[in-house]
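Exercise 7. Given the encoded structure of a 162-residue chain, write a plausible sequence.
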């Protein structure tokens, strides 16, 4: 399956699902969402990918999806940050890494620790777009096979101008 939006382009490997969208602040409802709403807020593209059924409601770093992962599953998200982040030290790495190694993953790199899982997170700039790549593995013990699957996705993903 081919997905293309907001300058992201990917051919998903077999068995993968994905979405590329942009959060719309106008669609947020409820008291908690309204308390955090800022009329001048700008949102940026986010791409979410998984080698399992990707739930409809998934937070930026995978909440709502990572809890459902089995030992053979992984979740990948690519988030764009605003132009004010360009040139900042956090985003100084040029280009998204496309060949990750199992040793780069750790149970301590998850947004929220889930027993048995592992993760990877990095910040970079590509096509003058500041980004974060976050990957959660359903099983840290199975990281060699899962990282190879993640690399297949990363190889098929391009980031261009919006």
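Solution.
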């Amino acid at each position: 399956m081919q997905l293309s939006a907001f300058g992201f382009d990917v051919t998903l490997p077999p068995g993968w699902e994905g979405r590329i969208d942009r959060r719309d602040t106008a669609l947020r409802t409820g008291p908690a969402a309204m308390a955090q709403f800022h009329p001048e807020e700008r949102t940026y593209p986010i791409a979410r990918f998984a080698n399992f059924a990707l739930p409809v409601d998934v937070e930026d770093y995978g909440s709502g999806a990572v809890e459902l992962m089995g030992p053979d599953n992984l979740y990948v998200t690519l988030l764009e940050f605003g132009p004010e982040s360009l040139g900042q030290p956090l985003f100084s790495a040029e280009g998204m890494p496309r060949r990750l190694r199992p040793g780069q993953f750790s149970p301590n790199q998850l947004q929220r620790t889930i027993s048995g899982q592992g993760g990877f997170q990095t910040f970079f700039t590509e096509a003058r777009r500041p980004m974060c790549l976050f990957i959660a593995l359903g099983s840290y013990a199975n990281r060699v096979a899962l990282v190879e699957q993640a690399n297949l996705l990363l190889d098929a993903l391009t980031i261009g101008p919006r």
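Remark. The radius of gyration is 16 Å. Students should compare their own answers with the one above.
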